[in-house]
Design goal:
Layout (H helix, E strand, L loop, with lengths): L1 E5 L2 E5 L11 E2 L5 E7 L6 E8 L5 E4 L2 E5 L4 E7 L8 E10 L2 E3 L2 H4 L4 E5 L13 H4 L6 E11 L4 E6 L2 E5 L2 E7 L4 E14 L4 E12 L4 E11 L4 H7 L6 E5 L2 E3 L13 E8 L4 E9 L1
Parallel strand pairs: 3-11
Antiparallel strand pairs: 1-2, 2-4, 4-8, 5-6, 5-9, 7-8, 9-10, 9-11, 12-15, 12-22, 13-14, 14-16, 15-16, 16-17, 17-18, 18-19, 18-20, 19-21, 21-22
């Protein structure tokens, strides 16, 4: 059992009730980390920070999977994306709630748990294919930061159009925090969501970030929002899923010399929207 307490919060994992890998060998896909949290609060949020072979730190959200209010505890589960390269994964869960967090800030920068990855059997083409077909471009990512966006309390519902059911849901503000970039999200911006008949939303975003030293950065991207098989009907009734996955491809532009390195990046965003909570969160990675 691994547990931490801080700020009146407690988390634990690698137990029978909160299974998580530690000192084990795991398959490269389907890795799940369950985290127990006490006390049970509606505002509890869990993210798992991890790194592969000691390289760039990444994080993934852990949605709530079980609520036991009478016992005063909750359980959250993070699922790591498939990891096709590397040998060892180090990780630590972090719980935040109304300005409190566990573990303490110093411990949250460490990685007390780890596991090894099984030998990869992944092959994008048959091993008997000609050599020129077996060549692949290596994919590496660098963590840029995490954004927490507060959505406007009421969206503009355009309604059914020839392109699909259209909703404009502008941001009311937010933050973007990373190792080399700290910024706020301007409330002026466009978030147009076109919901298709299959429940998939095509999201188009244009928004401005303002860094702590007042540099302005334009961010624009398209994204896919999965509202579920009944997403089209949900959108018409404004009855949103508790959690919807969002996958995006952002680009950033700025004239500020301090941040001109952003202009060269092609990024990918991995996140989720919680419409009932008016929250949109994502991790931003640059493709190297």
């Amino acid at each position: 059992m691994i547990s931490f307490t801080h700020d009146g919060l407690e988390l634990w994992y690698a137990t029978n009730d909160a299974p998580a890998p530690d000192g084990t060998v795991e398959d490269r896909a389907g890795i799940a980390i369950t985290v127990g949290v006490r006390p049970a609060k509606p505002g509890n949020t869990v993210r798992v920070h991890y790194r592969v072979d000691g390289r760039n730190v990444r994080s993934v959200a852990a949605p709530l999977v079980r609520n036991e209010p009478f016992q005063g505890r909750q359980y959250f589960r993070a699922r790591l994306p498939p990891i096709w390269s590397g040998d060892t994964v180090d990780y630590i869960p972090v719980v935040t709630s109304a300005g409190r967090r566990v573990p303490d800030p110093a411990t949250a920068l460490t990685f007390p748990s780890s596991f090894r990855l099984a030998s990869s059997t992944f092959s994008p083409v048959p091993p008997t294919a000609p050599a020129e077909q077996r060549r692949g471009f290596p994919v590496r990512t660098a963590y840029i930061g995490t954004s927490h966006v507060i959505m406007a309390s009421r969206p503009d519902v355009i309604g059914e159009t020839p392109a699909g059911f259209v909703i404009n849901w502008a941001p009311a503000g937010g933050t973007f925090i990373g190792p080399h970039l700290r910024a706020s999200v301007h409330s002026q911006g466009d978030h147009e969501l076109i919901v298709r008949t299959d429940g998939v939303g095509d999201l188009s975003v244009r928004v401005t970030l303002e860094t702590d030293d007042h540099a302005l950065i334009s961010m624009r991207y398209s994204a896919v929002v999965d509202l579920g098989p009944d997403g089209a009907e949900r959108a018409r009734q404004q009855r949103w899923p508790a959690v919807s996955q969002v996958r995006s491809a952002p680009r950033l532009l700025t004239s500020n010399a301090e941040y001109e390195w952003l202009n060269r990046l092609q990024c990918v965003g991995i996140g989720e929207v919680r419409a009932a909570e008016l929250r949109y969160m994502y991790d931003l990675y640059a493709l190297e």
